[in-house]
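Predict structure. Chain length: 298.
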Amino acid sequence: MDYGHDLTFGTFTTPQSGDPHEPVRLARVAEAAGLDLVTFQDHPYQPAFLDTWTLLTWVAASTERVTVAANVHCLPLRPPAVLARAAASLDLLSGGRFALGLGAGAFWDAIVAMGGERLSPRDAVDGVADAIAVVRGIWDTSTRERLVVDGRVHRLDGAKRGPAPAHDVPVWVGALGPRMLRLIGAQADGWSVTLGRLDDGGLARGNAVIDEAAAAAGRQPSDVRRIVGVSGTFASQPHGFLRGPPEQWVRELSRLALEDGAGTFILASDDEGEIRRFGEEVAPGVRAAVAAGRSSAG
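Prediction complete.
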């Protein structure tokens, strides 16, 4: 299934605090290599990492073109109303270069240790649905109607709206389970998933759940961008999936775009050379191959 999205490419780097300027430097490398997006994991309970929100702000101020995002924000430690205002502020300051990634939370012992609440699987999913309603309500300044969100986990009772972001900020959700996938199909703008966490056929099965939920909600499946995290190694000879020369990467990622609907590829790497090759050799090759495949398919 090809959803016809314009392809975008990005990086996923680790915000290590040992050299606080390294993630910023790699973001500049990604931008210089022609990539569209730089993302960072958000684990506020991890003292070896820089705070992701602070880092996103610094990276946005240190670059000119790339979009910045968390992959994905830890909602149990990021109150959605505050997150919405921070997101809109950064989008305004950066000239529309922010995307909002949301996650239900996973490492609950660490979350509780930081003062967060341990949620059941059901509440964790409902919390994401509530958060999307909260975020979009805060951003919607087209009305003066009193903002109320009566969620199971997150609630608003008359919160002030605004500021509105500079552009229509996409809300991407990281998920694997069927309830979350149905939520994405019904409400989100993107599914963020790491390919290595899926078994064979997992991307197609997840797409099917999202597509069905989108249709049931009166949406088009193409309303949901598929953001796929990948990793691999560059080598002179092929020796496995995404392990070989750039032309092999081009073939394999093009298949994921044309057959499994991937619209954004995010390379997990802290290596400058890999980031450069991904942006300068792989991304243009995939765009050309997908354009050719779409043309031949009519």
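Summary: Residues 59 and 252 are 30 Å apart (CA to CA).
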